[in-house]
Amino acid sequence: MAARQLWAFLTEIDVRDLLAELDRRDPGLVHSGGRYLRGDAQELLRDPTKLERRESLPGEQRLYLFHRKHSADVIAHLQPAGPFKGWWQIDEERSDCLVLQLKNAPAGELHPARLYAHVTFWRAADKARKRPMFSIWAAQTLKWVSARLPETAVKFVRIGADALARVKGGELRLTYLYREIAPTRDRS
User: Fold this and answer.
1) Domain residues for 146?
2) Mind listing the pLDDT tens digit for each residue in 91-142?
3) Which of 13, 54, 93, 186 could form a disulfide bond with 121, CB atoms 3.0-4.6 angstroms apart?
4) d(CA 167, CA 174)
5) Residues with Cβ < 8 Å from 100, sequence gap 6 or more?
6) Is 29 exposed, middle or buried (0-12, 13-18, 19+ CB in 10 A)?
7) Please, is 12 exposed, middle or buried when counting C-beta atoms within 10 Å of its C-beta (0-12, 13-18, 19+)?
8) Three-class SS state of 187
9) Phi then psi for 126, rounded to 5 degrees?
10) In a domain, 188, yes or no
């Protein structure tokens, strides 16, 4: 389980805007989709367009957010067998990255995305901490994103500006745990 996380309803426009705002806030953000890759994993920090990428599970997308200044470790494991034989799998727990997990939803619905980071990880019986620069960046980034997005009826789930406008315009329904939820909290 991720040590730090944030849930938010985000449309494609919200994701694009969020990535641009994160890079403006602290230049050096590099992002790339798909848990599996072919090529040198260090290219995730330099130029991820050089890599061939694939998603691991149907029905979801994962964007990996690295920062050229704050991310030092990029760990990937060669897959010896199975459908991804010969591909490298990003180790989310040990790599210095934020992960934006987006769930596919039926037309007219939107499920919450999850933005998370691991700042510690277990290996055997030892708990290891990541470098302080990454942990601080991840915590500050999640706090900054949380402060910029309003709450929905579910207090810990936020919502992007485009998603909010589309829900209020009747184009989208927000669903969480198979139930429709309101885009804003009732303050009465």
Assistant:
1) 4-181
2) 999 999 999 999 999 999 999 999 999 987 777 778 877 788 999 999 999 9
3) 93
4) 7
5) 15, 31, 62, 63, 65, 113, 114, 115
6) buried
7) exposed
8) coil
9) -105, 135
10) no
